[in-house]
Design brief:
Blueprint: H1 4-7, E1 46-47, H2 51-81, H3 87-119, E2 122-123, H4 136-153, H5 159-180, H6 187-195, E3 211-213, E4 231-236, H7 243-249, E5 251-255, E6 274-278, E7 290-292, E8 297-299, E9 306-308, E10 314-317, E11 326-327, E12 329-331, E13 337-339, H8 356-364
Antiparallel strand pairs: 1-2, 3-4, 4-5, 5-6, 6-11, 7-8, 8-9, 9-10, 12-13
Helix pairs in contact: 2-3
Bound molecules: FE2/S2 (inorganic) cluster (FES).
Pfam families: QcrA_N (PF19297), Rieske (PF00355)
GO molecular function, one term: 2 iron, 2 sulfur cluster binding
Organism: Planobispora takensis
Length: 368
């Protein structure tokens, strides 16, 4: 019984046959000799390193690897010897770890480069480039196929389909233009949203908003927060679980002895030595809540920006460019701490323009 499939005459291929996988190399670029099979590497086209250069390379690479070994040991020793703690020891540890690791990686990379360039043989390889354009037959085949597809889709014969498709695509084309509006006048509203926090809003009863302890939600009686050096993480009452609000409104509350407060702090915005600062670091917004009681330093753990809490939370070290904003506080009729107004300047990272609000505060002699 014959197989009919083999009897049917196959049309001549109109496009070049697709080659799956890596094509066979052209004879002129092959590293194999005419009678060699794959697996037999020909030395034709290969420059072997002369023994003198190879020996030199071997010594140089070995030296690099020895340096890598020693630097690796130094890294481990540094980790054990230099413990982090205060600012100085942390800097020393970072320097030792970073320096030894850099040296180890650099020496390892140099050794490998020397090994490849001075010890291993060099190959001369030529890769042929072919014309980018398809041949005429392929182009005409694509053209024919496209026209055939268009005819079969009925886009020319069925105007209802064509018009509704165009109508459906039009709003999608306009979508990017609508998004561009965010760069225009509506930016002003965005700016406003960044400027204000919920501390500026009164409660439903029209009273100033109380400060409550983060986690427990307990309001803070000023008389109870009375040990100098004490620190609390604080959120606005009514917004204890609102992450959007908390992202800008979280505070740290610090109690000072009156003689500890310096001129950078606006004393009119404090109550009995209690000062409230934004907890959002002015570098890139990490929570800055590590507090060193003896020096009054607030430390941001992300990039080590350090702020002087006694002096208006001015930056004394690190990449932050401006102080942590201070919140004006007082006590209500029952002696609980409340915010008397919103922050006078925007909280958080300083990468956007602060503009008029800050200028106004500077004019009034408040915190800048
Ligand atoms: S976010 Fe605080 S120092 Fe970078």
């Amino acid at each position: 019984m014959t197989d009919n499939k083999h009897d049917i005459e196959q049309p001549e291929e109109r496009v070049p046959r697709r080659v799956i996988g890596t094509p066979a190399p052209a004879a002129s670029t092959s590293l194999l000799g005419p009678d060699e099979t794959p697996g037999e590497l020909s030395v034709a086209g290969v420059d072997l390193q002369d023994e003198k250069t190879a020996k030199k390379g071997e010594k140089l690479a070995a030296l690099c690897f020895t340096i890598t070994f020693l630097a690796g040991i130094a890294f481990v020793v540094s980790y054990v010897v230099f413990q982090v703690g205060d600012l100085e020891s942390t800097q020393t540890s970072t320097l030792a770890l970073g320096g030894s690791l850099t040296l180890a990686l650099l020496a390892l990379a140099s050794g490998l480069v020397v090994w490849v360039r001075m010890v291993m043989p060099k190959y001369k390889l030529i890769q042929e480039r072919h014309a980018m354009a398809s041949d005429r037959e392929t182009r005409s085949y694509v053209g024919e196929t496209f026209l055939q597809g268009a005819a079969e889709s009925g886009i020319t014969k069925r105007p209802l389909l064509r018009r509704t498709l165009l109508a459906a695509a039009a709003p999608l084309g306009l979508a990017p233009l609508v998004l561009l509006r965010d760069l225009g006048p509506s930016y002003t509203n965005f700016d406003e949203k960044l400027r204000h926090t919920v501390w500026g809003e009164k409660t439903k009863e029209g009273k100033p908003r109380r400060l409550v302890v983060e986690g427990s939600g307990a309001p803070i009686r000023a008389a109870d927060f009375n040990s100098p050096g004490g620190i609390l993480s604080v959120v606005p009452e009514g917004y204890e679980h609102d992450l959007n609000a908390l992202a800008k409104a979280t505070l740290i509350l610090i109690k000072f002895r009156p003689d500890e407060i310096k001129s950078g702090t606006n004393v009119n915005w404090t109550h009995d030595g209690i000062v409230a600062y934004s907890k959002i670091c002015t570098h890139v917004g990490c929570p800055a809540a590590l507090y060193e009681q003896t020096t009054h330093h607030i430390l941001c753990p992300c990039h080590q920006s350090t702020f002087d809490a006694a002096d208006g939370a001015k930056v004394i070290f690190g990449p932050a460019a401006r102080p942590l904003p201070q919140l004006p506080i007082a006590v209500d009729d029952e002696g609980y701490l409340v915010a008397t107004a919103d922050f006078a300047v925007p909280v958080g990272p300083s990468f956007w323009e602060r503009g008029d609000a800050e200028a106004e505060v500077i004019e009034k002699g408040g915190q800048s």
